[in-house]
Request: fold
Amino acid sequence: MYVWEFGIPVVAKHISEPDMHAVPAACMHPNQKYFAGQSMDNKIVIYDCKGNFKLNRKKKFTGHLSSGYACGLTFSPDGQFLCSGDAEGKLWFWNWKTCKNYRTMKVHEGSVTIDVAWHPIEPSKVATCSWDGLIKLWD
Reply:
């Protein structure tokens, strides 16, 4: 994985570990101290943003099926929850502190939930989209 400083076309950090899988989607935690990456081995991995972008091995979010897809993920505006789509059309919510699954919903029938976005002003609403062209707003 490569990390760039915004606005400078020079790699700031190259992260490579023997057990690391591709990370096609990532998002920042609202406190700007961490970023989450959707790993291709059906996990969401967390990296520290301060210092040398080290993998946070204490925080790992599992249970969903994302292998083979660049399923999007997002944090709630307050940073308490992490949300991700998956290959089976589900929407997954995890508690940030405990790393445990909070809730799972079947949101798209027969299609991949390819992206998710938390409403920035109304924290009870989440939008999802899938490869079948549907965009849904959940409350």
